[in-house]
Amino acid sequence: MSAPSQDPKPGHAPEFHPDPITGEPGAHPLGTGIGAAGGAAAGAALGALGGPVGASIGGVIGAIAGGLAGKGVAEKIDPTAEEAYWRENFHREPYYEEDKDFADYGPAYQMSVARYEEDARFEDHEAAMAEEWDSAKGSSTLHWLQARAAAKAGWDRLHRRRDGSVGDEGPI
């Protein structure tokens, strides 16, 4: 059996999302990084009560805890399964245009998977996603206002899956 491709097509994530260091499937560097940054800031703030050394130690401990928590959130989402779901279903969505294909909508779904946070709303990330769209869209012919509907659908699906209000459609 051949190894998964490490050179994805533009706008497609590598199959199995390999860890950049170990090569193991299921890497979640974005979730880990976001968690680590937030944890470091919180840990440093709490540690500051003990002076500069306390702030340093608190920052390190917070980064580790936050990184693990961020990775835990990211591991609840299977980007490969999400891509497979949308590849199969994008043409059933009300925003779908017949002259468009998955390469047009896929990057918008991927943005939602990458940015999704359990306790955040799509609107909390929308401005940043709009700003990043031109560099993230790959070969998509959509403008942000067209892609927004797909990005929101991707976000909403993750949110409904988290809440259990969507049937068993495979892993998130």
TrEMBL record:
Residues 1-35 are annotated as: Disordered. Residues 9-18 have a biased composition (Basic and acidic residues). This is Glycine zipper domain-containing protein. It comes from Luteolibacter rhizosphaerae. The lineage of its organism: Bacteria, Pseudomonadati, Verrucomicrobiota, Verrucomicrobiia, Verrucomicrobiales.
